[in-house]
Amino acid sequence: MRLVARFKDKKQVNFLVDSLERGGFNRDDLIISDLQSTETHPLGSADEVAEEVAFVKRESDSLWNTASYGEDFPALAGKNGTIVAVELPKHDVTRVQQMMEDAGADEIIKD
After folding, report:
1. What is the pLDDT of residues 14-37, one digit of tens each?
2. Where does residue 109 fall: left (phi above 0), alpha (psi -120 to 50 degrees), or beta otherwise?
3. Which run of H or of E encompasses 48?
4. Beta bridge partners of residue 84, listed in sequence order
5. Which of 31, 103, 26, 25 is nearest to 73 (CA)?
6. Of 98, 110, 106, which Cα lies nearest the Cα of 10?
7. Measured CA distances, 23 to 17, 26, 63, 89, 91 (Å)
8. pLDDT tens track for 2-20
9. E strands, the chain, where?
10. CA-to-CA distance for 104 and 18, rounded, in angstroms?
11. What is the mean pLDDT of residues 81-110?
């Protein structure tokens, strides 16, 4: 099971990450990605993009073609902010969803 929360403020992301770590989740269970599309990013090279935009390499991406993890979620299309995705067992969904709400998530997606 995966929960994805979208935040406008990076301080809220930090608060959520701290809460999740205190709640027993490992950083390896989290994916944090900027929603800004790297295809239209004004920076030229992949190295410059990597320094400015948090992204996750996907199997469908070529070595120099980067994409935001958020592009895998159609409900997030055209939205800005940062997402935090958490892989978790079903029995933790309610607890983690509450942590996301407490951190100020603008939107939460169950996947």
Report:
1. 999 999 999 999 888 898 988 865
2. beta
3. helix 46-52
4. 5, 32
5. 31
6. 106
7. 10, 9, 35, 14, 14
8. 999 999 999 999 999 999 9
9. 2-7, 30-34, 82-87, 107-110
10. 13
11. 96
* Adjacent-strand bridge partners of 3: 86, 110
Question: Structure tokens of 21?
Answer: 């770590």
Q: Residues 33-45: what's their mean pLDDT?
A: 59
Which is more confidently placed, 47 or 105? 105
3-state secondary structure of 65: coil
Amino acid at 20: L
- Provide the pairing of β-strand 82-87 with 30-34: antiparallel
Residue 28's pLDDT is 84
Q: Which amino acid is at 3?
A: L
Edge-to-edge strands of the sheet including 30-34?
Answer: 30-34, 82-87, 2-7, 107-110
Encoded tokens for 83: 């997402």
| Separation CA 18–CA 43 (nearest Å) | 31
